[in-house]
Predict the 3D structure of the following.
Amino acid sequence: MSHKLPQTGDMNPNDFRQYGHQIVDWIADYLTHPEQYPVLSRSQPGEIKSQLPATPPAQPETMDRILADFENILLPGVTHWNHPSFFAYFGITGSMPGILGEMLMAALNVNAMLWKTSPAATELEDVALDWLRQMLGLPAGLDGVIMDTASISSMIAIAAAREALDLDVRRQGLAGRADLPRLRLYVSDQTHSSVEKGAITLGLGQENVVKIPSNAEFQMQVDALETAVQSDIAAGYRPFFVCATVGTTSTTSIDPVSEIAAIAQKHNLWLHVDGAYGGMAAIVPEMRGVLDGAEEADSIVVNPHKWLFTPIDLSVFYTRHPGVVKRAFSLVPDYLRTAEGDAAAVKNLMDYGVQLGRRFRALKLWMVIRTYGQDGLAARLREHIRLGQQFANWVDAASNFERLAPTPFSTVCFRACPDSVPETALNELNEQLMTAVNETGEIYLSHTNLSGKFTLRLAIGNIRTAERHVAHAWALLQETLTGLQQP
Ligand SMILES: Cc1ncc(COP(=O)(O)O)c(C=O)c1O
């Protein structure tokens, strides 16, 4: 490699080619054997920082040295979400076609804020999201926009719902207005915290996010929703938004979307369906029913970066009311005006959210969908569901473990419950069990709290997870439990 780096200008293209090949080789090896690393980083707080210089390099450094530090200093601080035994939270995958898409995105480095600033980015986004809509069995007429995360997609939904009320909030705001009732939103006690966060961000007030209790299967109780809406109306509040979830975060329960849709329609609420995780299962023909009722929704979020093998970040926000979203967010200063935009001949992505700049994210989703095909994607999701059901069956058949929630997808909620341990000691035992299996570096599980019970979660969503990984997790849990119980 040449050490005579120019004073100005980019890296030498030959060096780029050489290191580019080296990095692709490294990625291919990494993705072939992610099991060579402990899945959960063993790094202690501050350990990575302490190995890095506190001041920037004044002089150029060689890529060899930079890559050596990546390997020696940074990698030990990485938790390997690509490890096939990553079962925590929701398993995800940066799949190979998705990574190739990311490389091309980075190389083009377009800003897709306006159609004109890269027509292909806007138009491919429309095409890829319409393909995805069809794959999910959702009706035509839903317009899709790529957001970074489901949290932002849901916040956009709340903002659009508020705009649809025609209360002139965009111009006058909410504060200090005696003419406005309190706006009320409805979620369940299982809804992802991002919906509440969106309401906080939009100045609606955390108190106005009404948490409807869920039933024994962790689904929103629709009669309680109806009662809450009615009593809020009687109290002079203005109900305007309800979120139904397909695949809640803790247990992956599915809210009764059709029944919630009927209540939404009756009271003129904006129905938002959060299918960030579970919605994707509708790609599997026999699972299509999970999105029943979503065709009634005003907006829907699904996350290809969760369970569609697309590298983070890529969340899809669908709505039947793109004009309302645009009304809520479009603000076009002179320097961003274009002839096509003025003529409303194109979609300018900057009009559909807070941010101006946007990456060419559609490219990676398009490459993932084309590489695997709809049937290939369905086969992979179906296999994850099969593995999840199998693990659930093992738990059900074991006398020293129990399942704590139904398993509609590929995520299993369970705990150890040996006869010899009293109920009052089970939370501590299960926390110890989780910590112990995670410390092995062989698997990574996370937890939740279900009705006061410390609950282990095993979530399958990585493209490389095979039956042997799930079987090993089960064996390790049993072995570790036995070890913990030894005096
Ligand atoms: C149901 C649900 N909605 C929303 C989110 C938030 O997702 P994101 O990280 O894309 O904001 C999650 C995260 O796990 C989730 O499970």
User: Anything to note?
Assistant: The domain at 111-359 is CATH 3.40.640.10 (Aspartate Aminotransferase; domain 2). The two ends are 60 Å apart (CA to CA). The first strand starts at residue 143 and ends at 147.
